[in-house]
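Teaching note: in complex prediction, the entire set of molecules is handled at once rather than each chain in isolation. The prompt given to students was simply: 'Predict the structure of this complex.' The entities are:
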Amino acid sequence: MKELITSLANRYGVRDWKDLKAGQAACFVDSGRLRDCLRWLRDEAGYAHLSFATAIDQLERGVFTLTYALRNHERGHSLLVHSEIDRTRPVVDSIHRLWAQAWTYQREMKEWYGIDFPGSPRVDEEFVLEGWQGPPMMRRDFDSLAYSDATYAERPGRASSDPAEHMKRELYPEEQA
Amino acid sequence: MSRAKAPYIAPAERAAPDLDSGKYLVMWQGPNHPGITGNMSLRLVIEGDSVVDCETHVGYLHRGFEKLMERRLWMQNFPLVCRIAVPEPDFNEYCYAAALEELAGIEVPDKAVWLRTLSLEMIRLASFLMWIGGQAGAFGHGTIAQWSVTMRDYVLDLFEELTGGRIYHMYIIPGGVRGDVPAGFLRRVLETMDTVRKNLDDIELVMFHNVVYKMRAQGLGYIPPDWVDQYGITGPNARAAGLPRDLRKDLGYLAYPRLSFEPIVGTVSDAFERSRLRLLEMYQSIDLIRQIVDMLPARGAFRAKLPNPLHWKIPAGETYVAAECTRGEYGFYVVSDGGDKPRRVAVRGPSYTHGVALMERLARGVNIADVAGLMVSLHTYPPEIER
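The expected output is the structure of the full assembly:
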């Protein structure tokens, strides 16, 4: 494993290697070298299986953390490769030519976080949010409750009341008078 | 020549049919077509009776689970996670619970480890039984669906006795499981396994020796072994292509390292081989359940002590916990920033790759009558695509 860490650091400036548990580690790479790093991991280091790709909104720091989970089946080891991109200019290289299913994850990240992957097939098509008009819904500053209150009307007949007050009214109406 | 000997391999590039030419027909299959395993749609472009292009459309079941989880306490997410994969909810419970335990440093008692393993194997069997009904039904064998759904109900009876719920169990919780086995439960498990096994023998005879089933399933949806990593294919779909990948062996979680079993592999990953392999995995599950019943500790704690769930803060960190469900690699990626709610929970369901990118590729060139059978042969559950 030491050899892999050194190779990644020398070739792609991979940093902050952390063993999360037996058989799983995480590391960071600059977004400009992300695609090359993933290609090398796939072709030269045996991390051929892409389990998933997703993003984490670090609103407080103004970045998105991208996470690519790779697995080396021969070695029995999983690697979470992270990369951070500016939240105000969320663009990153597409990896759809590295894995044939990667475009689906990228399409999801475009819809859910507004992260763009230029050249990725059908990246601008709706994925699960058909007809969605709001901002990317997985961003931390998107308040789903406020959106729901502003977009949808209350259904009649669904008024709620304070249980204590309601029981008082029901059981002791004379006290109300 | 039989198509089993020369399976069709769909081209990598999508065709761009001229829809105004009058040669093609656009047909939507789903979201309520009986051949679609759940609420998703396939937009098919048809030429004659062959599929030229296929697009998977999801979103009919999107309930924003991952967004909701970021707004709720760690423990409040428990009734939520099981709903991500309806026919096989226990994997969500296990992956989420195990992720929390790893991040919070909680040790799970040995008896709970065994009970979790029992629960996961039982739900694997129930899920396979539901699937085989759909697979047979897609090729016109409705009787098998009636048998297998009855057998699934017997397994659900066991879940009802163990957990109080038939579909959603919420049995595996952080620190262990919600309760011990009731008196006489293990005997009833063994009796049910005998019943299911006898029924599987009948299914094997009626379905896998049927010439119609053979001719329609063989060569359909062939997955070459080099697609497995390209498309992120896991589970029986990958094992049928000859790759002995099974996370129960590879990760050795729960009590699996103490059980005796080997991954079942096939030779040619077409719809027939995948269904045959899943049938063998049902027998394997029955065998594993019997082993678990034999080795289950009679005494011991089934749950570790937890902090007050209303004030439970989990130390900052991240982890990815995966398990082998019936469809392949099921995983939860959980990130904590040290607070009382998750920073991020991402769910990795095997249907995500099988039902979208892989299905779109495999459907090209397939006869429209076989699309439903192909879809079911990949064993997809749309809720885990949409989360």
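Point out the following to students. The two ends of chain A are 79 Å apart (CA to CA). The CA atoms of residues 17 and 165 of chain A lie 58 Å apart.
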